[in-house]
Design brief:
By secondary structure, the chain is mainly α. A hairpin with a 2-residue loop joins strand 1 and strand 2 (36-39). 13% of the residues are buried. Helix 3 (81-90) packs antiparallel against helix 4 (94-105). The N and C termini lie far apart (51 Å). The strands form 2 sheets. It has a two-stranded antiparallel sheet with strand order 1-2. A two-stranded parallel sheet has the order 3-4. It has helices spanning 2-26, 41-49, 81-90, 94-105, 109-126, and strands at 30-33, 36-39, 60-62, 75-77. The protein folds into 2 domains: 1-39, no CATH class; 55-127, no CATH class.
Length: 127
């Protein structure tokens, strides 16, 4: 009896996951690789921001004021740039915020987008 129940639960779980994975592929968040799937760049910034995976790429960070140790492979925004970026995000202009970060740090577009997306998420939480 327990074995039959376990088999039934496994089948239902597989069907549920199969449909969810198919939806992720259809929306462009994952792509098929044989009988497996892999994430696309479309979901990368969200996964990084939620700490769902470690990425060897450098991150954009605000320069700490307390003298804390710096990550050697991170891009740091300095001076009044964090305030200017926050203002652009609050004004609903995330693309200009990403452009400013990129111009000031030389960071890649994906890293800039992850930083701005994190600011947007934090601002929505505080509302």
């Amino acid at each position: 009896m327990a074995a039959e129940l376990a088999v039934g639960l496994a089948r239902r779980l597989w069907m549920t996951l199969h449909h969810e994975i198919a939806a992720l592929v259809e929306c462009g968040y994952a792509e098929r690789c044989g009988n497996m799937v892999k994430w696309t760049d479309k979901i990368a910034s969200v996964m990084r921001a939620e700490h769902c995976w470690d990425d060897p790429r450098p991150q954009v960070k605000t320069l700490p004021h307390d003298g804390a140790a710096l990550d050697a492979d991170a891009f740091y925004i300095r001076g009044d740039v964090p305030e200017r970026v926050n203002r652009l995000v609050q004004d609903g202009n995330p693309i200009a915020a990403m452009a400013l970060i990129r111009a000031e740090t030389g960071a890649g577009l994906l890293e800039c987008k992850a930083y701005v997306d994190d600011l947007v998420r934090k601002s929505h939480r505080s509302e």
